[in-house]
From TrEMBL:
<dbReference type="InterPro" id="IPR015915">
    <property type="entry name" value="Kelch-typ_b-propeller"/>
</dbReference>
<dbReference type="InterPro" id="IPR011043">
    <property type="entry name" value="Gal_Oxase/kelch_b-propeller"/>
</dbReference>
<keyword id="KW-0677">Repeat</keyword>
<dbReference type="Pfam" id="PF24681">
    <property type="entry name" value="Kelch_KLHDC2_KLHL20_DRC7"/>
</dbReference>
<keyword id="KW-0408">Iron</keyword>
<dbReference type="GO" id="GO:0019760">
    <property type="term" value="P:glucosinolate metabolic process"/>
</dbReference>
<protein>
    <recommendedName>
        <fullName>Galactose oxidase</fullName>
    </recommendedName>
</protein>
Length: 356
């Protein structure tokens, strides 16, 4: 059964080590309750946009985009303009990202099928494009995705570098022919230049994580902009329904090298959650499922949430630590510095060379 509520964490409260979860917002029954969708935050207008996802308990309807006004606690079905290739359909379990200062939301790939599209007959299949939503102009656009097969159940993360930044995509499945899922190797990183609207492929160096899907991640940056680090947690295996992960890896850029940062033994495998970076220094991992025992919450007093201290800025230098409402800085952890080497200053120009 799907949870049909709209909840929020009060980030101004750190009394219990995790911001309290509050349930006092409106969500009418006609607003979709979906899984595998995307929430885009419009910081300037203090709105949330709900895009995509599949219906778990009810047949799908024809709506594509909804907006939630945080000031007025109200929902509106949005009818955006469309500019791009092909027909726009509701997809699920693609990869989403938002660039708040530009008012842009992005959604890469995903499945379309009977649980997401009205009147769909037949099996689900994967779509290849990159959808963007201009929150200022209220326009959806469908552009080309990375070369090769469509992507599903991976991540799409924004990296603030270059003219307008980069989007990086990795993990999940490559859907061969749009239907047959094959695990995407985690050393293959697809990079999208937001300004030029072009894709590139970058191969990482050294060790890298096992192929996984339905994990989550977030990006934070060194204070001088010399490096950017993508932290990922957990996920389900792409090779076995009975396997998953309970670990943290960091993709450090511009070196494009993976660092195994933390692993729990024995693993309490966990997938289907969200990762939310808070003011550079922390990332809250929220929700998800435990395939071995879905009846038990591993953190019932913290509403199923966990806080990752990205810079280990705590007395224990721990990777997981209580949420601190006043932490707003990030320093690259020594473990990453030791493996990658220095502050990556010698590689600082790499992105510019790459973009050129």
């Amino acid at each position: 059964m799907i949870d049909d509520k709209l909840l929020f964490h009060d980030l101004g409260n750190d009394d219990k080590g995790i911001p309290p979860l509050v349930n006092n917002l409106t969500k009418p029954s006609n607003v979709p309750s979906v899984i595998g969708g995307q929430l885009w935050a419009d910081q300037a207008n203090e709105k949330l946009y709900l895009f995509g996802g599949e219906y778990a308990d009810n047949p799908p309807d024809s709506s594509l985009l909804w907006a939630y006004d945080t000031w007025n606690d109200s929902w509106t079905q949005v009818t955006p303009g469309f500019n791009g290739q092909g027909e726009m359909k509701r997809a699920s379990f693609g990869a989403g990202a938002v660039v708040e200062h530009m008012g842009m939301g992005y959604y890469l790939g995903g499945w379309i099928g009977p649980q997401s599209v009205v009147g769909w007959n037949g099996d689900k299949y994967a779509v290849p494009g990159l959808i963007s939503f201009d929150m200022v102009k209220n326009v959806l656009r469908n552009d080309s995705g990375p070369a090769g097969d469509p992507r599903v159940e991976g991540v799409l993360l924004y990296v603030p570098t270059g003219d307008d930044g980069l989007l990086i995509s990795f993990g999940g499945y490559y859907a061969k022919g749009g239907k047959d899922p094959v695990g995407a190797p985690m050393n293959e990183i697809d990079v999208y230049d937001v300004n030029q609207k072009v894709w590139h492929r970058v191969m990482t160096s050294g060790q890298y994580p096992e192929s996984r899907r339905r994990f989550c991640g977030g990006v934070t940056s060194a204070s001088d902009g010399s490096s950017h680090n993508a932290y990922i947690y957990g996920g389900a295996s792409t090779n076995s329904r009975d396997k998953g992960f309970d670990d943290i890896w960091v993709l450090t850029m511009p070196a494009f090298q993976w660092v195994k940062w933390w692993v729990h033994e024995p693993p309490n495998i966990h997938n289907g959650f969200s990762c939310n970076v808070i003011r550079k220094g922390q990332m809250i991992v929220l929700g998800g499922t435990f395939p071995y025992d879905q009846s038990v919450c591993d953190a019932p007093t913290a509403w199923g949430a966990h806080n990752m201290d990205l810079g280990q800025a705590n007395p224990e230098s721990a990777e997981w630590y209580g949420y601190k409402k006043n932490l707003s800085t990030y320093s690259v952890p020594q473990k990453i510095i030791n493996i990658v080497g220095g502050r990556q200053v010698t590689l600082k120009a790499y992105f510019q060379v790459f973009l050129n």
